[in-house]
Fold this protein.
Amino acid sequence: MTKIIPEDKARQGRWGWHGLRILIAGLLLAFAAWGIAEIYGEVVKTPATQQESAPGG
């Protein structure tokens, strides 16, 4: 025989603090990776004045 369960009782659970902490940690890690990529991009970028070759005379 099949049990009939009301919709409000059939939930699997709440997100709670654990889920919120995981989401915030993921967001902070994404910002850290973005910042590292920005810094690395600035370090690798060659200034336009260094791209010109020396005058050959």
Q: What stands out?
A: The mean pLDDT is 82. The radius of gyration is 27 Å. The CA atoms of residues 41 and 47 lie 12 Å apart. Helices lie at 16-44, 48-51.
